[in-house]
Amino acid sequence: MMATAFAVRRSGVALVGATEPDLGTAIEDLVDPGAGQLMTLFWLAVGASILLPRLPYGRNLLYPFALLGTWAHEMGHGVAAVMVGGRFRRLEVNPRLGGQAYSSGIWGARRAIVSAGGLLGPALAGGLIIVLGSRQQTAPWVLTGLAIAVAVSLITVVRNAFGWLSLGSIAAVLAPIAVYAPPGVRIFLAQLIGIQFCLACWGTLDYMFTRNFRRDGHVIDSDTQEIANVLVLPYWFWGTVIALLSLGVVVGSFYLAWMVPAA
Bridge-partner residues for 87, per DSSP? Predict the structure, then answer.
């Protein structure tokens, strides 16, 4: 009897003959995943992102990733400020997943770019992480680069104690995982971080469609209202534009990472 043999692109399954799955095979797939298991790791990361917040203590498990999303949001503001000729002075994050980026030398239309940077920045970074983190060769570099970026931000712009302690701990954990963890663990972690970065935008939909909010007794314009102050159209219009752009980034990164055959 002839053994069946066929193969499809990396988002599908490769089979040669018929074998019974066992625990040893499952562990081997995690340590050295084949083409058919890579996309499974992505969907596991998606499932964790959707299900864990709905389970008891699930949010606690995702807390470090949500904190990274807050960091990415504030870094997006700061990096955008530097790109338009301003100064990124400091960054703060707090235990309730809030934060603030302080910049100077920003005026006119540049204010709209800086405000949009905090909303689009995490989605763009998350899309890049999803694409590069889907390859066994590049996933370690993605995690290493992220650990280095967090560490550099601690030295240059993070200026509150909680930010130092929490983000420093995250960088200290990411670095050895990038170097020593099995390939499957690296890919899963990279996909989970990338997804959480993308969700950082959609998780703040209420904020994007809010005109202003209160902080320390002061009324402060939201990022989308800051954009509206410069570009005339209402804040809800810019919230819609940014939400659609972020969705486009997610779809595009998924396609590049998992639907395009690996070279």
Answer: 104
pLDDT in tens, 166-182: 999 999 999 999 999 99
**Per residue in 215-257, pLDDT tens?**
777 778 888 889 999 988 998 999 899 888 888 888 899 888 8
Q: How far is CA 105 from CA 58, 88, 232, in A?
A: 41, 9, 22
Contact 10, 39 (CB under 8 A): yes
Q: Where are the beta strands (DSSP E) in 105-165?
A: none
What are the distances in angstroms from CA 188 to CA 38, 164, 171, 178, 182? 9, 26, 17, 12, 10
Q: What's the DSSP call for residue 53? A: G
20 pLDDT band (50/70/90 cuts)?
very low
**Amino acid identity, position 81:** A
Burial class (CB in 10 A: 0-12, 13-18, 19+), 57: exposed
Contact 16, 5 (CB under 8 A): yes
End-to-end CA distance of the chain: 34
Contact 158, 151 (CB under 8 A): no
206 Cβ neighbours under 8 A, 6+ residues apart:
none
Amino acid identity, position 163: G
